[in-house]
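Problem: given the chain below (295 residues), write out its structure.
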Amino acid sequence: MSRSFAILIFLGFTTAAIAAPALRTGEPRILYVAGDPGELQIYSVKPDGTGSEKLTSDAGNHLFPAWSPDAKKIAFSIEKDGLQQIYVMDADGKNVKQLTKDGQINRGAAWSPDGKKIAFTRWTGVTHNVFVMDTDGSNATNVSNSEYYDADPSWSPDGKLICFTSTRGGDGFRIYIVDTDGKNVKEVTKEGNVNGFVYPAWSPDGKRIAYAHPAAGGLEIWLVDTDGRNNKQLTKEGVSNSYPSWSKDGKQIAFGHFDGPKSAVKIMDADGANVKTVVELPKTVPEGGRVAFKP
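Solution.
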């Protein structure tokens, strides 16, 4: 996220056939959000755009889906009355359990590589900070612990670090890296993103971070080394592109493309080549429609 900026995320129902949820071991899948505002649901689809499956159906907006490392669970947020709580369910949509219960905004869950922790963004009553909790919702600890707006965590593959976005640079949102105990905060990007929707995603090899950043009047997907070097623009899709998510082998990146009343889930090679549309999503809904490649 990155704050309640005026940019809206455009999502909708796909025209692909909706199948009954099923577990398919080893099959590549991409999670996405679709539906009507107030009743947004989580779906999964193959990278070729076939086999779309609806995973949730309860009331409220179902947002920010995230696979567990073993792909057996999905963490997500449900938004009701302007608040969000984090839940977890099986990969087929069954056995839904609520994790956070503090009456605040809790969103953007990200699993640790060992599957024992979940990082997320929480409204502290003053601003948003990055927290880490056990996967049963207990022992929530403020990791970024600042007066700034800190959000959108992503774990390093070795589980030792978390990258996140923050306004502490004073010119919008930059990417920072912090130890999982909250120590040793380091800046990665040297220029702020005033539009928000940065959503950094750590590569499987641990060397790079994909993220959204302004370009040509919109937002495009960029790639930067974890030390801030070799920053380069990957997409030139126009308008707004965000929510990058890496394939398990690191060879592809899925992302959301948002163009006025139209939008889509797309994939591309990790160097920005061969952009393809996976699902077209025509409806307009608020932020939270994260795209998530199955690990």
